[in-house]
Specification:
Helix content is 24%, strand content 29%. It is α+β, with helices and mostly antiparallel strands.
């Protein structure tokens, strides 16, 4: 079989500037995303606005990296995660946006997929930005990572992948991994390092009912969560991506983030930042990574989102396009 493979490029997808008119001091969010399907065709990306109580608007971004025999789970997440969050935000008894709300969100979506989640699963990393209160919320399961950086390109926050190499996750599962029926795979080069349990290389996911039924204490759907004040954290931009990106930059995420900062700075010199420019940054990130590895094998699918927090942004297009 020939090692030459035609790249399967699924256009670029973007959303325009989300205008937050509730307050003169509210932040402006301009975001763009790009998806390139190379091997599994199970990467999904969604960006848009969602509405809370009193018609209050929020920016939502979600990255979903599916795995398994079919695309049911990852498609369901892409189409429904933001809708379920919007429903929770509008619910009368929702008093605040916190960890419990996001845990309920992930639990609700997990239950919706119970009947068709035996052959597949997915990561989920979502970002909710409240431009009035200037709060950024992140919730995630799996290894699709989000990195938050300041104007100098310094990393101020990075999500931790839910893998068996993560100390906190190893501590969580240590008393459960020897349950009968649990299949553990260790690294060939490091015999004491767990790489997979019940065929999964991550400790948290949505879907994957087969693995979870074998040992429900190992693979869980409860998300990790954090929130912080954007101004106090000096957050300027966020990059969210599936592991196809982060595995390529495994030793140099700081250098990569600096490159994104330089692109943003370059565009700002020309005037106000536009959604087309942010979209082009996301696109260039993906296209900079080789289609194949050194042995001619296709590299993993890649989804990338770049979210710029910029009160001086302008947009010449009010449309919102999503994959």
């Amino acid at each position: 079989m020939s090692n030459y493979v035609y790249p399967m490029l699924i256009g670029f997808f973007f959303s325009s500037l989300f205008s937050m008119e509730e307050s003169e001091t509210s932040l402006s969010i301009i975001a763009g995303h790009h998806v390139q399907q190379r091997r599994k065709r199970q990467d999904r990306s969604y960006q848009g606005t969602i509405i809370g109580k009193k018609s209050r608007t929020f920016h939502f971004s979600g990255i979903y990296d599916g795995h398994g025999d079919n695309e049911f789970v990852v498609e369901h997440l892409k189409k429904n995660m933001h809708k379920r969050l919007e429903e929770l935000l509008c619910r009368e008894d929702t008093k605040k946006i916190d960890k419990k709300l996001f845990e309920e969100l992930f639990h609700t979506v997990e239950e919706e997929m119970e009947e068709f989640a035996y052959g597949s699963g997915s990561t989920a990393t979502i970002c909710l930005i409240d431009s009035v209160k200037k709060l950024l919320h992140l919730a995630w399961v799996g290894d699709s990572r989000a990195i938050v950086a300041n104007k100098e390109g310094e990393i101020v926050y990075a999500t931790q992948d839910h893998r068996f190499t993560h100390g906190g996750e190893l501590e969580r599962i240590k008393d459960h991994k020897n349950k009968p029926g649990t299949c553990i795979r260790y690294s060939r080069s490091m015999p004491t390092m767990i790489t997979h349990i019940n065929s999964l290389g991550m400790t948290r996911s949505l879907g994957d009912r087969t693995s979870k039924n074998i040992n429900p204490k190992i693979i869980i759907s409860k998300p990790a969560y954090t929130r912080f004040n954007i101004e106090k954290k000096d957050a300027s931009f966020i990059v969210m991506a599936s592991d196809g990106l982060w595995d390529y930059y495994i030793f140099t995420p700081e250098i990569f983030i600096q490159e994104v900062k330089d692109r943003i700075k370059e565009y700002r010199k020309k005037g106000s930042l536009t959604f087309k420019q942010v979209k082009s940054i996301a696109k260039s990130i993906v296209e900079s990574i080789p289609q194949c590895d050194s042995k001619g094998r296709l590299n993993d699918d890649i989804s990338v989102q770049v979210i710029v927090i910029d009160p001086n942004s302008e947009s010449d297009d009010k449309s919102c396009i999503e994959e």
